[in-house]
Specification:
The complex is a heterodimer. Chain A is an all-alpha fold. Chain A has helices at residues 8-18, 29-34, 39-62, 72-94, 96-102, 113-121, 128-158, 180-214; strands at 160-161, 164-165. Chain A has a two-stranded antiparallel ribbon. Chain B has helices spanning 5-15, 26-31, 36-66, 73-95, 97-103, 114-125, 130-158, 170-184. The longest helix of chain B has 31 residues, at 36-66. Classes of the chains: A mainly alpha, B mainly alpha.
């Protein structure tokens, strides 16, 4: 995407929609499935990842001329690990309950493929501003994806959203949805829905093209 | 917590399988599980890296604790794992170039396999001693390999079956993983 015509907004939406890290590229699934047992967990994980992704993109982009090509991956990893350590201690200081809920997965942000992928594929080749905007878009897409998973799993598996009961006392929670298999099923379902929707749109466009040709 | 070595092994291998119950190492799980003949070596390579990483992480943790540098733990672990992967890469390149090519990009990606870092982090968090750490690493690696091989076998069969074209690809793999995971829930409680 190195054309100069790409506007800031398009750059941002690229990560949110067209290259959504969870639903389109299917990256960073480990945290996506492990922590999304509730909407709150999903959002906090999304925010933590946003911070790490954006700050590391900024730093990598600022240092892009100084980092020797041979050791660039190692450098990126160390930069990312530094920010993850910051987030780790931050969450521990702000909310111990949240820290316990997310467990080791905060530290595992280091190995989230999205962050290293962005550093390598985008931030290392662009000036700071576009790099940060792209990173923000990707993080927004990631957070939206996490929320979509977490909300569905919480609604089905516990009958609540953000801890508020939705269905009254007679609801029988679908417990498997908050257990590990539920994570796989819900993400698979989302991917199916998006695939079906994409297919439907393609067909509609083909039909439209046909009609306009005949007219 | 005084878990016996057998308990730790069973826990990491089956009851809390790294891939199917703890969602660690999903990228290679989805990415390399297309063919059985690459899945098994990939599992073996990952297990080896886990073992080396676990050994080094144990020593490193003692060292960091001695100098009161715990905040450097994460960075140090990552560097250790990256070096271990490099080692495996060199060994494979020398002794089995064919396999080296087959694994392709996924070999260096073991560095960013959360399962490997997960082993190092969990053994620290649970304060395992030396033997426990090693058992944990072997169990986790075996569990990862088992999941990978199971998945690859199922997917090889699937190539011959008639699947709705919308569902093909990642969506189907995830559904399969869900069903496997459901099966592995039957092992819950086995590790005590």
């Amino acid at each position: 995407m190195s054309q100069t015509t790409v506007t800031t907004w398009e750059e941002f939406m690229e990560g949110v929609w067209r290259q959504n890290p969870i639903f389109v590229m299917v990256l960073g699934m480990c945290p996506a499935l492990a922590v999304t047992v509730s909407a709150v967990n999903a959002l906090s994980m999304g925010l933590a990842t946003t911070f790490v992704l954006t700050s590391s993109a900024l730093l990598v982009s600022l240092l892009r001329k100084m980092i020797p090509k041979e050791v660039r991956i190692a450098t990126y990893i160390v930069i990312i690990a530094t920010f993850v350590t910051v987030v780790d201690y931050l969450i521990q200081a702000v909310s111990l309950a949240l820290y316990d809920a997310l467990g080791a997965f905060i530290q595992l942000i280091v190995v989230n493929c999205i962050i290293l992928g962005r550093a390598e594929a985008h931030a290392s080749k662009h000036p700071p501003l576009p790099a940060v905007i792209n990173a923000l878009g990707m993080s927004a897409g990631f957070t939206i994806g996490l929320f979509a998973l977490g909300a569905v799993r919480e609604i089905l598996g516990a009958g609540t959203l953000f801890g508020i009961a939705l269905f009254g006392a007679n609801f029988q929670p679908w417990v498997v949805m908050v257990l590990p298999p539920g994570g796989f099923f819900v993400l698979g379902m989302w991917l199916l829905i998006f695939a079906a929707w994409g297919r439907w749109r393609q067909r509609r466009q083909a039909r439209l093209a046909e009609v306009t040709q005949h007219a | 917590m005084h878990e016996s070595a057998a308990q730790i092994f069973i826990n990491a291998f089956l009851a809390n399988n790294f891939v199917l119950a703890m969602f660690l190492g999903l990228c290679p799980f989805i990415g390399v599980s297309g063919k059985l003949e690459t899945a098994a070596p990939m599992g073996a390579a990952t297990t080896f890296v886990m073992l080396v990483a676990s050994l080094c992480a144990y020593g490193l943790n003692l060292l960091l604790g001695y100098f009161n540098l715990e905040f450097l733990r994460l960075i140090a672990y990552i560097v250790i794992i990256a070096s271990a992967v490099q080692l495996v890469e060199m060994v494979l390149k020398k002794y089995s170039p064919a396999l080296f090519r087959a694994l392709g990009i996924y070999l260096p990606l073991i560095t960013t396999n959360c399962a490997v870092l997960g082993v190092a982090l969990f053994q620290t968090a649970r304060e395992y001693d030396f033997v426990q750490s090693l058992t944990f690493a072997v169990g986790a690696g075996a569990g990862f390999t088992l999941a990978l091989v199971l998945m690859a076998s199922v997917r090889e069969r699937l190539q011959l079956s008639d699947v709705p074209s919308v569902a093909q690809g990642t969506a189907l793999s995830l559904m399969l993983a869900g069903i496997l995971s459901l099966g592995f829930m039957g092992f819950a409680g086995l590790g005590g």
